[in-house]
Amino acid sequence: MSYIPLQPKHPNNFGIIRYILAYSILISHFNVLSGNEIYWPISSYYRVCGFFFMSGFFMYGSYDRHRGMLNFLRHRAIRLLPSYLLVVLLFAVGLVVASSLSPWNYFTSPEWWKYLLANISTLNFLEPALPGVFDNNPEMAVNGSLWTMKVEWLLYFSVTIVMPLVLNGKLKAWACFIVVFGLSAIVRTYCAEHYLLTGNRLYHTLEIQYFGQASFFYLGMLFSRWLPCIEKQKLWLLPITFVMLLAGEIFLNGSLAYRSFFYPVFFSLLVICLAFTGRWGRWIEKWENCSYEIYLLHFPIIHLFVNYNLIDTLGVMLL
Questions:
Q1: For residue 64, is pLDDT > 70?
Q2: Deepest in the core among 34, 109, 135, 280, taking most CB within 10 A?
Q3: Helix, strand, coil abundance in the chain, percent, nearest 5
Q4: What is the pLDDT averaged over residues 216-222?
């Protein structure tokens, strides 16, 4: 199958889909932090998976345009790190006003320095909390969204290994991406089963973080490769994937095999069909897309609303 890398101006609705997913994640975190139960039809886990699918979808063409490990990683760093580092520094410094410690004790605390270094290096799990900040909130982690960054970079490094083999003809792209998806789904199922058996949270972390997201990421790579074919079939793929997702949610929701193997395929197909069907979301292209910044900022802002008891008066109305 011939492949033409997706160009930045290729008409699509991905911009509005990013906003929908970012808003969906915002609602999920708002419910967790505030104790509310605002309904949203997209399950919380797959809101993040949608972003990883789109990331993988664009990485195939991105690597083709920015070949070489250093060139590719430098391009990704320029795109992602400025906003990420600004958010880490902004709240590390600014949340001194919400800390129960004095400014001197706050900035000289080993916990503050550990937080700063851990989050700058994207290893936020090493120190997710700041000293004296949000101690009385349901969740002490300052920014529960940042865990995705380390997974994103691990997947980028995997691209620098896989893509040279694909582009040099040593591996068939479609076969390679399907194998990676299948292995990720198998390991994800294994981790899910062992988490249920043992209660060991390491299995749960591996399930929902790297292996869960790798399956969506490489589905994105695969569908980017197959984009011409999918575009030709999108008018019948769109209703079929919607019906399959609906049926799966009703009848197979508790099945690990369905969640690991079938749901990712149907969900990803639905996203890509929506992205290339009609012009329903292209009106938003007149503005710079800031869904990534919304994703990075919303968690600590909701924390502040909860911390200062602003949810009842302002929070729900803002949603």
A1: yes
A2: 34
A3: 75, 0, 25
A4: 96
Sign (positive/negative) of CA torsion 278, 5, 173, 49? negative
How many residues are present in the chain? 319
Q: How far apart are CA 64 and CA 11, in angstroms?
A: 19
- The answer, yes or no, to whether residue 133 has pLDDT greater than 70, is yes
d(CA 145, CA 302): 12
Q: How far apart are alpha carbons 190 and 74 in whole angstroms?
A: 35
The mean per-residue pLDDT over the stretch 61-90 comes to 93
pLDDT of 293 over the 90 cut: yes
For the chain, the domains span 14-318
To the question of pTM greater than 0.85 for the whole model, the response is: yes
In the prediction, which pLDDT does 319 show?
Answer: 53
Q: List, in order, residues 6 or more apart from 163 with CB less than 8 Å away.
A: 60, 63, 64
Quick one: pLDDT at residue 35?
86
The residue among 188 and 285 whose pLDDT is bigger is 188
CA-CA distance, 70 to 186, in Å (whole number)? 31
Please name the helix (run of DSSP H) or strand (run of DSSP E) that holds residue 95, with its range, or none. Answer: none
What confidence tier does 46 reach under pLDDT thresholds 50, 70, 90?
confident
Separation between Cα atoms, residue 172 and residue 43, nearest integer Å: 33
* CA–CA distance, 249 with 262 (Å, rounded to integer): 11
Q: Is 276 helix (H, G, I), strand (E, B) or coil?
A: coil
Could you give the angle at the alpha carbon of 73 between the alpha carbons of 71 and 76, nearest 5°? Answer: 110
Residue type, 171: L
For residues 33-62, b (16+ Cβ closer than 10 Å) or e, as one string?
bbeeeeebebeeebbbbbbbbbbbbbbbbb
- Distance between CA atoms of residues 295 and 130, nearest Å: 20
Which residue did the predictor score with more confidence, 168 or 118? 118
